[in-house]
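Bug report (template v2)

What were you trying to do?
Predict the complex of my protein with adenosine-5'-triphosphate.

What happened?
Run completed; filing so the output is reviewed.

Input:
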Amino acid sequence: MIQDDYRAAIDIGTTKVCTILGRKRSDGSIEIAGVGVAPCNGLHRGLVADSQSTTAAVLESIGSASKAAGMPIRRAYIGLTGSHVESRNNWSRFDVKSGVKVVTQEDMRRAISVASSDVEADGRSILHVIPRSYALDGIYGVRNPLGMHAGEMYVQTHAIIGDQHPIDSLKAAVKAAGIGVSGLVVEPIASAEAVLTEQEREEGVVLVDVGGGTSDIAVFHEGTIVHTAVLPVGGYQFTNDLAISFDISHQEAEEVKLKYGSAAQDARTASEEIEINPRGMDEPLLITRREVGQLMNDRAMEMIRLLMKKIGEPHVKELNINRLVLTGGGVKLDGFASIARYIFQHDVRVASPRGAEGLPEDNQDPQFAASVGILLWGMRNLPRESHISSKSQFVAASAPSAGSGLKSSIRNLLPRKLAGSRESGTPVGV
Ligand SMILES: Nc1ncnc2c1ncn2[C@@H]1O[C@H](COP(=O)(O)OP(=O)(O)OP(=O)(O)O)[C@@H](O)[C@H]1O
Ligand SMILES: [Mg+2]
């Protein structure tokens, strides 16, 4: 009997952790079996700043996803972000043995391995080496050389690299929750996997996932990825501006942002008053929506200009891309997309994740693009490993040390045998 191919993905974000368990059907389609979301405040700008609270949020979200799916999770693909993530495009030469022969899957695998060793990582970790195109005996633009004849092959790759320390901290926080890391998926490519259409990738598109603490950028052209970057700014900046400007707590600032925040200047509601509670005052204070809107508008303008600057590098600029796709919770701010349209002066679309069946309605939201994308990308590009334990193990489990202070209900959802010690390390290639 062929075992069902179940795999899990964990998106550890600056505001929430989301675990998704999915099943790959024999026809290649992916069905969501369970989703678990837990608030998280263990990260700062996409990096683990408090490992214990990150681990606790991972445990809580895994517990919910396990419960929803009715099976425990023991390994997962993990999303990685942070402004240390950078990309490089390279050409590498690879000889297809001596003489002309048919290019095999093994040749393509070896070509990626050669390309990986050519990446100038400057001592940093290579996260992905993605083939973009091939040149066979001087003929460029070959997308899939499998089965073609060649003596000499060049492969053009997009390599994504990152700093070792934040990678290690992220893995440690996951392992402390008793979960093995099957592979890391860089969040910009995960979000792109969940929201972009083939046509957009073909014609050229800039994808930006504005999260709580980071904005993840991926640029595609002629069907392949050409640029990946992460900016350490996100929805937090809007909240922080409100907190500082009006001397209110971050919690109150977040509530004001979600309820009244708009980057669009709307004359109809501008004079509406909002009651706030500044820290140094005994009495509440009335401010107008215009004041809140002005802050949101200034910050949105600044953030989008920063994004434009980040994609202003010559190898992206020369492609004349005229389409921007926005996702992530930050783009839900009213008026954000309109400002992006105004500055970018081209097509702008706000996207929610797609490509997986059975995604609960609550998760069909830009905030879950990366979470869904980690699962999709991992399932489509990384090797299969057993991500779940058999159902018989879905009983009371011993908790890992990091979870000792956690609710017993969460502890009980952990696999009896915690993940094995084998760890796939940083995945290279697709
Ligand atoms: N309706 C809304 N209006 C304005 N901002 C919103 C809205 N809904 C969510 N946000 C903001 O979206 C951000 C969270 O987005 P998201 O869940 O994508 O981030 P994350 O994945 O936790 O963080 P990151 O990807 O940066 O590590 C928060 O800053 C939140 O305030
Ligand atoms: Mg995110």
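What did the reviewer find?
Confidence is low (pLDDT under 50) at residues 390-430. The chain has three domains: 5-83+164-191+369-411, 86-161, 197-350.
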